[in-house]
Amino acid sequence: MIISVITPSYNQGQFLAETIESVIRQEGDFSIDYLIIDGGSSDDSLAIIKHYDTLLRNREWPIACRGITYRWISERDNGQTDALMKGFRLAQGDIFAWLNSDDTYLPGTLETVAGAFRVHADTGLLYGDAHYCDTAGAVIGRYRTEEFDLDRLASANIVCQPAAFFRRQAFTAVGGLDVTLHFAMDYDLWIRIGRRFSCHHIPRMLATYRLHETSKTISSDTLIRNSEESLGVTRRHFGWAPLTRVYTSCSILCAARLPGLFGNSRLALAAAASACTLIRSLVLNRGFHRNDLKLLNRENFRKLCRSRIEIMTGGKP
């Protein structure tokens, strides 16, 4: 079995060595096809990439699997999705995955994945659990995954991208990543694979998902576009704007636009976001959608006065 891992990279030399080592340290009965697609970084990323290339070429790195093919490109691109598709077009593996340049695999991850794909021969997508960690790598929470349910995917991100792996066959059959998307390309891919192939959750920690100021997940510069794109993908695939996703977008918009004291007050922010959600949901769904009744539960109401990070990581307000 050959597992192709793509790492899109741009000016994240601070984390890149840890990411690379987490891939090439993997042990087991499989081969690794590793491609790093750098967007022309201006920091020390290229030196780091070349360093590991030299180690592997000179056989100075202890290889604990059947073999490692290490390739890289450094040139300007049109963003992360474009970089990923460059990598996947070059990939030689039976199994595909991507690992961002600030995330890592845990020891034993690829061995677990290879074994699971051998057992679940008809599965198009496998995914496990992941720790959230901070800039220093300290664990600050857990990504909330669940057994795969396509309908549930409409209202919750139950598949963790750095802990997800999919067959080349499934990826190719659904047309790969949508290059028009810059934030929700993974979410969009899970939906399209889930509609045509069996998907399976592995209840085991496979990766770390790093949260920091420049991360697309929490960066104030990209949060609005990220949430709006995810909402758009949901509406396109499910014909529905779930309250949870509308509230996420509204809370981010309100936090960015409410003046001074109001923006810093959780109660005021929750009230403004709730009012915005009600109006926007009625407009987007042309009335109240019956599926939203399932989302009016205690757990979701408890999230109203919690920050995005607290909701993601499971922290207490």
TrEMBL record:
<feature type="domain" description="Glycosyltransferase 2-like">
    <location>
        <begin position="4"/>
        <end position="171"/>
    </location>
</feature>
<dbReference type="Pfam" id="PF00535">
    <property type="entry name" value="Glycos_transf_2"/>
</dbReference>
<dbReference type="InterPro" id="IPR029044">
    <property type="entry name" value="Nucleotide-diphossugar_trans"/>
</dbReference>
<dbReference type="InterPro" id="IPR001173">
    <property type="entry name" value="Glyco_trans_2-like"/>
</dbReference>
<protein>
    <submittedName>
        <fullName>Glycosyltransferase</fullName>
    </submittedName>
</protein>
